Amino acid sequence: xxxxxxxxxxxxxxxxxxxxxxxxxxxxxxxxxxxxxxxxxxxxxxxxxxxxxxxxxxxxxxxxxxxxxxxxxxxxxxxxxxxxxxxxxxxxxxxxxxxxxxxxxxxxxxxxxxxxxxxxxxxxxxxxxxxxxxxxxxxxxxxxxxxxxxxxxxxxxxxxxxxxxxxxxxxxxxxxxxxxxxxxxxxxxxxxxxxxxxxxxxxxxxxxxxxxxxxxxxxxxxxxxxxxxxxxxxxxxxxxxxxxxxxxxxxxxxxxxxxxxxxxxxxxxxxxxxxxxxxxxxxxxxxxxxxxxxxxxxxxxxxxxxxxxxxxxx
Length: 314
Fold this sequence. Notes:
The chain is an alpha/beta fold. It contains nine helices and ten strands.
């Protein structure tokens, strides 16, 4: 059901977390890279379920998303970060870049994601953020798109000359065998300590936060390149009534023209955004969802530090 209207770090378990708990391993892994290299797709594959939104539009991820995967004696706590911004320096992008920097500094290992066979200036700027001495794994993603595999060997050699990577992992994030191999490679870098989360946990983010992310994903996917990425979603109401979730959300855009793009002819596009978001939320939450969407214009919100904070940007 939808109604369309137009107008931090996890806490360790009890006890001393520095002491092994029956041989358990647990650690933080940052996933970093320039925009649109497949970080969110990789996070979802590593966790085994969707916890971060994906889109062809660059800069889909705007927050530090934590995904959790427990396998055998190891608990992997992944941090998916926004793509580091080098082209625009407005308050929104500066906030996103601070998130990347803080994430890289306090993890046990870094997954540096690039497109296999490619390395540009934007990749180099992200690579420079990895602290000296921090274990880093080069994840060469989108291997399935490489036509000439023979060219990968010299490329990998050139990457090793750029940074002392602990491991090289060419893969395709959508291939389960590749993801399993990456998990096995990362495991030894996790400290021996008690798990921070329940074995069944998938994310430390709330259902309210996931609701805003899913609506934003559908917004970007259904507007394509028409809508600038300086659009966001704010949850106005999130109520639980047994197996029912009542959610009211506002899609915030910068201009009246953008508002028209979101609404579409006769409100059809906004209705489709609501329908697809509701269907995915019901699957994700295993509950019935009543979703109400509004569209409002807030000029210059991405340049307003106070408004950014009110919209949940750290």
